[in-house]
Amino acid sequence: MLKCSVRGEPPLHIQWRKDSIMLDSVTAQTKITTRPLTTDSRMTITELSVTSASNTDEGLYECFASNIYGDDSDGLFLQVQGKTPKVVSHLTLHLLLV
């Protein structure tokens, strides 16, 4: 699971991208959930889960966020090795838009 924390002035627009291509919120391989943080109205948490990862899931994953003040992104390269990929648990990316 990849986790992205975004803080900024609402409304925030958040997307996950793989190799610069926007990901759908739910596919056979991925699931994206986005929720506001209840203790901070300017913080949003979004999570990307990749199930049954294979070599085709390897690539650059980016969390992209924007609001009226600008945009920001952060990402990482996911490398799949072997038949049973090692699970990366709660990798967190932090973005700030104020």
Q: Note poorly predicted spans.
A: none
Largest sheet: 4 strands, mixed
Could you spell the SSE succession in H and E letters? EEEEEEEE
Number of beta-strand segments: 8
Please give the alpha-carbon distance between the first and last residues. Answer: 26 Å
How much of the sequence lies in strands comes to: over 45%
Residues in helix, %: under 10%
Question: Mean pLDDT score, rounded?
Answer: 83
Strand line-up of the largest beta sheet:
4-5-1-8
Gross morphology is: elongated
Provide an overview of this structure.
With 98 residues, this protein is mostly beta strands. Helices cover 0% and strands 56% of the residues. Strands 4-5-1-8 form a four-stranded mixed β-sheet, with no helix packed on it. A hairpin with a 6-residue loop joins β4 and β5. The protein is elongated, with a radius of gyration of 14 Å. The two termini are 26 Å apart.
Relevant terms:
98 residues, mainly beta, four-stranded mixed sheet, four-stranded antiparallel sheet, elongated
Please give a quick description of this structure.
The chain is built from no helices and eight strands.
Task: Please specify the SSE layout and strand pairing.
Blueprint: E1 2-8, E2 13-18, E3 21-22, E4 30-36, E5 43-50, E6 59-67, E7 70-78, E8 91-97
Parallel strand pairs: 1-8
Antiparallel strand pairs: 1-5, 2-3, 2-6, 4-5, 6-7
